């Protein structure tokens, strides 16, 4: 089935309007829990910053016009009575906007200008454009009227709380271009007209969607929208982001975290292997001297105060299954070296003297920030960490064999075996896994799904262990998916982050482990329910486990990626059957 962008409309309240490679978007969402009445140009350089407010006006009296927003992957419209304003991306840093029957006011989002904050407005004497210079983003936003547009300016060169901005109008319609620039560039000269720019944007998305979601689209009705979430959240290299990168969102979760990127890589792998490989490698570009990966990366910030779980061996195994071309020997050797250092970090910096199993310093290290697993103590040896490390060592062994390093391959397998033995001997209760303090060895238990995560070991687990884990996991399954805290637990919270809501990564990891352990019926049901959840409620950061409602950030890329991954796996199984 072909993916066509013409039928894909979405709510801009939930998903920003943006373009592949762009560092800015158009949205009413200005910050977490902050939603404006008007659409804004929001930049993600130096953090998330609303820069320009875009307000449709009635030509007769200059008052704000009530409009409805209509968004597709290639075009955004304000629809009023009787006029409309339309916007398309001409490129990653340029939007074209035109109107008929409605004017448009472009003004700074921040009303006040201080010596250290806000947006300065002036008219450039070189080309006659109107420029807004943002302290927060460190960039300029140039507005160039096109054709016979009429421009009314207010407050140019004004300071403090002076009202400033430009109004675009014209009796026969008007058109302008808005660019995000660093310091200066030649005057804008349109390379094509508005319809051609719109057609180019539509084609760019359609080609991406065909590559990423085309095969899954027939049985996955939300595949095209999932592809748009990924396409529109991708930024081009800039600042600390040295590769094309899929941000987790172009809302406030505008970073790359060092496990989120793995799921985006897997979704992109069959259709866009180069972009997928970039996603996998990006955090390794900033690996520190201890071997640790950063917690998160964005345009102007890299954080190392926490890490994220070592799911990269699990990811690389699945990438090898899904990607059309393995890296060449040099790339494979580099990947092996980086993955070895990341594994050694957990076996040295995170393994206490006398302890075989590594530990987390905080729930944030696990990715399950506030899971009830960490209620008794934050510094904890956990079963999920041991399981991920075993899988990473197994993948290192496979890579070592590919590189002809047989002794290293055997050493990795021996270490994996000793860790798995310790996992069963020290953390398995006969019913579920528990945690232990690396200081005292004291035990702690919880009703978190995290304690059941060693199912990711799949076929490596003893049958009696995987059978009991599968029974426990089934107890977390609601009509919508896997609750991260058991719904009967006193710690369950409907919007409790990792204390109840359904999350995409835990769903995919558990589904994969169950399937490899032979529990295919339960794996099929988990996949079906999660796909149905996304098709009904979208691609939120997480979901209410009992109602299915989307929670927090509503345009989260790893959720879209996990949907595409599960849909593609389902399609492949169906084709084989």
Structure write-up:
This protein is of the alpha+beta class. It has a domain at 17-192. Helix content is 33%, strand content 20%. The chain contains 13 helices and 25 strands. The protein has helices at 194-213, 223-232, 260-268, 273-281, 312-322, 329-348, 363-366, 383-402, 406-427, 463-475, 504-516, 520-537, 557-576, and strands spanning 24-31, 34-43, 49-57, 68-71, 76-79, 84-91, 94-100, 103-108, 119-123, 130-134, 140-146, 150-154, 165-169, 174-181, 234-235, 245-246, 256-257, 296-298, 301-303, 435-436, 443-444, 477-478, 481-482, 542-543, 550-551. The strands form 7 sheets. The protein has an 8-stranded antiparallel β-sheet with strand order 4-5-6-7-14-11-10-9. A 6-stranded antiparallel β-sheet has the order 1-2-3-8-13-12, with no helix packed on it. A 3-stranded antiparallel β-sheet has the order 17-18-19, with no helix packed on it. β9 and β10 form a beta hairpin. α2 crosses α13 (557-576), α5 (312-322) crosses α8 and α11 packs parallel to α13 (557-576). It is elongated and about 80 Å long. The chain starts with 23 loop residues before the first strand and ends with a helix.
What overall form do the CA principal axes indicate?
Answer: elongated
Strand content: 15-25%
Portion in helices: 25-40%
Note poorly predicted spans.
Answer: 1-6
The rounded Rg comes to 26 Å
Largest sheet: 8 strands, antiparallel
What is the tally of helical segments? 13
How many strands?
25
The separation of the N and C termini measures: 19 Å
Mean of the pLDDT scores?
A: 96
Coarse structural class: alpha+beta
Q: What topology, given as strand order, has the largest sheet?
A: 4-5-6-7-14-11-10-9
Family: Belongs to the glycosyl hydrolase 63 family.
Keywords: Glycosidase, Hydrolase
Organism: Actinacidiphila guanduensis
Protein name: Glycogen debranching enzyme (Alpha-1,6-glucosidase)
């Amino acid at each position: 089935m072909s993916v066509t962008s013409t039928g894909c409309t979405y709510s801009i309240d939930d998903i920003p309007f943006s373009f592949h490679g762009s560092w800015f978007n158009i949205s009413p969402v200005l910050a977490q829990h902050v939603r404006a009445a008007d659409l804004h140009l929001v930049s993600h350089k130096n953090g998330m910053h609303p820069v320009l407010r875009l307000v449709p006006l009635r030509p007769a009296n200059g008052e704000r016009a009530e409009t409805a927003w209509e968004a597709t992957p290639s075009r955004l419209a304000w629809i009023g009575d009787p006029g409309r304003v339309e916007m398309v991306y001409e490129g990653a840093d340029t939007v074209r906007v035109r109107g008929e029957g409605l004017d448009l006011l472009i003004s700074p989002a921040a009303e006040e200008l201080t010596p250290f904050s806000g947006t300065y407005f002036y008219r450039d004497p070189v080309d006659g454009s109107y420029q807004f210079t943002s302290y927060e983003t460190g960039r300029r936003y140039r507005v160039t009227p096109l054709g016979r547009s009429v421009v009314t300016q207010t407050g140019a060169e004004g300071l403090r709380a002076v009202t400033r901005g430009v109004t675009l109008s014209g009796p026969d319609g008007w058109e302008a271009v808005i660019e995000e620039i660093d310091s200066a560039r030649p005057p804008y000269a349109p390379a094509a007209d508005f319809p051609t720019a719109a057609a180019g944007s539509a084609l760019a998305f359609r080609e991406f969607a065909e590559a990423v979601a085309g095969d899954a689209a027939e049985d996955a009705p939300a595949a095209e929208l999932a592809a748009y979430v990924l396409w529109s959240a991708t930024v081009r290299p800039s600042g600390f982001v040295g590769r094309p990168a899929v941000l987790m969102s172009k809302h406030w979760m505008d970073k790359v975290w060092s496990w989120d990127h793995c799921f985006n890589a897997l979704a992109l792998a069959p259709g866009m292997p180069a972009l997928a490989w970039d996603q996998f490698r990006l955090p390794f570009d900033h690996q520190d001297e201890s071997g640790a990966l950063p917690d998160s990366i964005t345009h102007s910030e890299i954080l190392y105060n926490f890490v994220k779980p070592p799911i990269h061996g699990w990811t690389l195994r699945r990438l090898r299954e899904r990607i059309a071309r393995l890296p060449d020997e040099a790339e494979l050797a580099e990947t092996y070296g980086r993955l070895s250092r990341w594994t050694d970090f957990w076996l040295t910096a995170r393994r206490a003297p006398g302890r075989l199993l590594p530990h987390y310093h905080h729930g944030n290290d696990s990715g399950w920030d506030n899971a009830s697993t960490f209620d008794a103590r934050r510094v904890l040896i956990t079963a999920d960490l041991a399981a991920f490390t075993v899988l990473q060592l197994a993948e290192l062994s496979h890579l070592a064999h590919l590189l002809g390093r047989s002794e290293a391959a055997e050493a990795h397998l021996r270490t994996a075996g000793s860790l798995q033995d310790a996992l069963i001997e020290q953390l398995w209760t006969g019913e579920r896994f528990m945690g232990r303090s690396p200081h005292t060895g004291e035990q702690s238990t919880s009703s978190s799904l995290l304690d059941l995560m060693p199912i990711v070991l799949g076929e490596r687990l003893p049958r009696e262990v995987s059978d009991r884990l599968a029974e426990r996991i089934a107890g977390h399954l609601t009509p919508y998916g896997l609750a991260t805290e058991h719904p009967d637990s006193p710690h369950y919270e409907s919007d409790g982050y990792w204390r109840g809501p359904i999350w995409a990564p835990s769903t995919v990891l558990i589904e994969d482990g169950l399937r490899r352990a032979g529990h295919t019926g339960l794996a099929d049901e988990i996949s079906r329910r999660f796909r149905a959840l996304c098709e009904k409620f979208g691609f939120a950061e997480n979901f209410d486990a009992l109602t299915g409602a989307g929670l927090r950030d509503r345009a989260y890329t790893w959720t879209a990626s996990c949907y595409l991954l599960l849909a593609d796996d389902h399609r492949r199984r169906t084709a084989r059957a």
